[in-house]
User: Fold these one by one.
Assistant:
Number 1:
Amino acid sequence: MSPDKVVIIGAGMGGIAMGAQLKRLLHHENFEIYEKLDDVGGTWAQNTYPNLNCDVPSDYYSFSFFPNPDWTERFAAQPEILEHCHACVRHFQLESHVKLQQECVSIRWSEKDGLWTCLFRDLIHDKTYEVKARFVVTAMGVLNVPHGLDDLPILKSFGGQVFHTAEWRNTDFDGEKVMVIGNGCSANQVVPWILNEQKPQSLVQIARSEQWVAPFDNWRISNFTKWQVVQVNLIHPQLANIQVARQAAADGMRSYMQSVSNPKYLDILLPKYELGAKRTVVDHGYLEATNRDNFTLIKCDGLQSVEGSDRRTLVDKAGNRHEVDIVILANGFKTQDLLAPMSVYGLDGKNLREIWQQRGGSEAYMGVSVRGFPNLFMLTGPNTLPSGNSTLHGIECSVVYITRLLRGVLARRSGKGCTLMPTADAEVQFNKNIQEKMKDLVYTSEVESYFTNKETGKNTLIWPGTQFSFYWSRCISPVNWSDWVVRRV
């Protein structure tokens, strides 16, 4: 193995950014990017369901070091975002570094060698093999492992078609009786497409909770705006956590929802919790679609049985019976099981997932590193997701921080390998401060969201400060090397 090799796990926007910045900032070419899918792009390659758009403005959603002046709409569609990923890979000549259809099964640290042994499964040839690396960067994302049937095992005996939005099938819905389970972002996009572009006999939606829904003000982007994206580096300030501003926004959304939705469903649709406690859903024509005669919305906690000789009668937990041909699962992702399904074994063979379970949910120093797991860095790690802003901004800040750490380690190695991990005190204090700050925010364990651990109520995903503070602490403020243990191998 060549020295200082970096293995990046995942070729989504995080993995692409990490590879590009290793080249740009460190002039480091000794890295490989492993991806389980057959394409780069991560969630934008995995999710191909109809009517899929980004729910943050496009100019927030391109790499700062590779801005895209050619967005055609304010909220770009999935094919356009995927092409942006492809363009970045081409521009920085990452193709030779990317290994597609290679799934990481586990990584294990060797203290003796100061190396990670990464076990991969070649999905093309169905065989496993090992790769050794000095450093590992996980770039697996948060929305990558669907709940699917694990959340609804009763549907394993269903007699019709059933699939998750992240595993979309090209299906003819004409004349079919359709059920959609879930009412988050993907359901908001899929439901109006089925009702408006297909001809289903009926569509029943099962919703467990309400969602704040904002209007989808999309428009074509002018040539002048495209020019601005290239010429001007814009800093997008995050709206401060002010009760008055939040209430005004909530009043506007409530008014919008009341004016567009079917009145008989308003009790189900309008949230009883504060705006911001859960991710806001952008309306892709969903609220208007609730007025369709062949649409039914039911609030209940899922399904209780599958019945009938053809196993196509579904009984929901409110006692309603439904004849169904196709079930679409829009029931989200396993966001509280970071790095799944990969296993991670650090010093003394300790399992990272078990450590996080003991702590009531995932946590990491600066959101990128955990004591006991040397030279392992995470993108979209614990408490790095921005509140109401582009996830890509958080990813890029973490990428820059990791490159700063690597630069410092590589400069100290004196021809030998080095290991790096946070001190115990630094890790404990950092995460204590994170959870203390969370108490002052709108997030609460009383409102179930994918940000929080159901069992403990711990918010493991959201950064509790401003985006500027996140940027400054990762990209500008000097690295506090006293918080790190650096050892030569």
Number 2:
Amino acid sequence: MADWSRLPYDIIHKVSTHLIAIEDFLAFSAVCCSWRSVYLAKQWHPGCQIPLLMFSDYENSSSRSFFSLYRNKVCNSELPEARSKRCWGSSSGWLVTIGNDLKIHLLSPFTHVSVSLPPKSSLRVHFGEILDWCDIIEKAFVFRKPCTTDANEDDMVVMIIYGPLKQLAFCRPGYSSWKSIKTASYGGIIDVAYVRDQIFALNIMGVLLVIDIDIQTVNNISFQQSAMHVASSLPHWDWDQLFLVESSGNLWMVCQDRSGSRIESVKFWVHSFDFNRRRWIRLSNLGNHTIFVGDSYSVSISGADCSNCKSNSIYFVDKKSEQRWPCREVHVYVGVYNMATGISEQLSFSPDTPISCSFPLWVTPTLH
């Protein structure tokens, strides 16, 4: 059997220059001590990464499964820090987690680094007594400026939509409490995106808002069409969800509609926000971009065709709840929608019915 640790440094370094995906970097570092030393010494600058799909939590298991579109395979990884917790992914490589102890953390599933965030007790949750612990936070986001490499710097922001009223709050690592953003006069918030160094939020009335966390203010963007007006002009009135997505400096809104019970009935429409004319413009196609949407965060990447990922398509995590006594049953599907053909297909690796409030989610891998 070959002794990989005896390879000359120059050859090991040459091998490392051919790595593309984060999962390759991590596998490279696990070969042996000498390979790991090269991994630690090299300044890695991997390109745009394809999000991984982290599967649901299963009972009596401390591991999680990740599906790589790039490698077209499922990998298992020990992740006891996320056991029996609800998680939300992000484009910065972090998960936001909450457990039945109501403690909230940032967790890197790739390095196992965990950062404590302010407790649930610092959130002003109206009618919180009607919620289970896993329903307190509806969505969570981790924003970081592109030039930032240290995840603990002050410009890293964690933002959440929480409570029955879909309120908005944020914090930074090291904060002792969550800072609430007063959005009550605008109604509940359904999604948030970070675009052009600004935080945008979409409320349940379809109004696009700009959030200034430095002075904790909310400003309404006045334009001719609200997102709700765009959505209600679709062929079907029973649209399912709206998502905000950053795409190469542009603000996109993704409208998802399910007209039936089968995954083939899921349709999408995409609009781009014109900052000059302050209105939404319908897009006929995404070009070489691919969008990933789900319960957690949404992200757009470009040039994905070379990574076993279809461009001009939308990968989505779709869930359907059924009220069955004595508890709610949730079915989860993962599919891809082709913008050119208007057809949704279920991906063959779609996970089974998840337990509790643990759902599949997208997380973009990083080395930081």
